[in-house]
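Table S2 (text version). Query chain:
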Amino acid sequence: MIESGPPGQVAAAGESSEDGAGATCSRESSTLGARLAAIAASGFVNLTIRRKLMVLSLTASSVALVLASAAFLSYQAVLERRAELARLSMVATVTASNTTAALSFGDEASARATLEALRAINSIRSGCVYRADGELFAAYAPGGDRGACAPVESQAGGSVAEHDTTVLRAPVVLGQETLGSVVIRARTVTFWRRLVDYAGIVAVVLAACGLLAFAISSWLQRFISEPILRLADTARRVSAEKDYSIRASGGGHDEVGLLLTAFNEMLVQIQERDRELEAFSYSVSHDLRAPLRGMDGLAAILIDDYGERLDATAMDCLERIRAAAKRMDRLVADMLVLARATRLPMRMEIVDLSALADDIGAELRAREPDRCVELVIEPGVSAIADGGLARAALRNLMENAWKFTVARPVARVRFGQRHEGGQRVYYLSDNGVGFDMTRAQKLFAPFERLHSATEYAGTGIGLATVQRIARRHGGDAWCSAAVDEGATFCFTLGPTR
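Corresponding structure-token output:
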């Protein structure tokens, strides 16, 4: 058996559920409004500066014009209403004056004849003459419906709005005596028709003003958008070509002009620092490497000419000197390559990466002819890139794979390409020692190594050079690997399409 609680509790529960439903609907409405606002905001943010200025200008102009038009229509409606009431009041007053004699002598025919004059006004639905006691004396109804004249309780003058009809009363007075009243009922359709006509005129004016505002905004926004667009184009060219001699033109003495001037000054400073780096690179290339080569050469002379007179300890020291000089020379050379990868101007062309990989593989085989390396190169792999930088990136990756597969009886190195999300991805994989992916972030940083120099030779600059070359082309470089399962290095030479 189901028991029901007291009526008060049931009602309270019903009200509670209704309140909960209302609150849920309110939250859903606010959430939907927030989503729509977010969509509109994101759409506006993604517009070009030219379109943003147009939208702002047209929105402000449209809002101002709509508000002004609404105010004009409201004011015009009040004026039209007052004028309509004034006209009808005058008609009612004149009709009341003309029916004074008819009411005094009880001449109903004369009163009807007077009311027939209302036929000239199309908006009038009926005209009625009442005696002082409220009894209908005479009536005019275009449709012949005398029921349109309902009895009245008051003889006082004035107007009353009834749905789509305006009712006006005018007393019929003779001296100090009120003989009756005249009641005129008129349609408000004419009033609304006038308002619709005014609204049509306002709409035409709004459209014309909107077109004019659009034309003026299109002309004026150029003074703001064009300098900014030139600045954006200059920044894009500088980023793509790495040519810091490019300058942004135009601009006046306003904030946009200040922005252009500051941007050009920044490019001047970057160009000066670039020259300083060039000078430093030249100094490192010649002034630092020359002594290193001298040390290596002198140590080689000592070994060749005085090797028989030196003991084993001295010979070991000389060999260490030579090895250290060579490592330092290699480090300097790699640093220069890394610097050139980000500073030298690029010459974009179609590069046959398969042919480059084949040439580099032949060089590596010639260095170590006794090694068994299965090198698989996918044919027809090409890219639009700078040929010299593409060769440098491939060389670093292939030397890296060659180095870390040295412990394998049969080393396997594969170069190819694949498509991921509309992007062409180049990869080079090997079956070398691999590495722990938790330390992968260090791989592309200069001078960072996952293995000691005693295990595998190197300077820790090669992969950093690869990533910088890829990023300079608008792409990137990354890797995946597992310990003792080899590694795969991927890179792109262009932004994602």
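Notes on Table S2: The longest helix spans residues 255-306. The radius of gyration is 48 Å.
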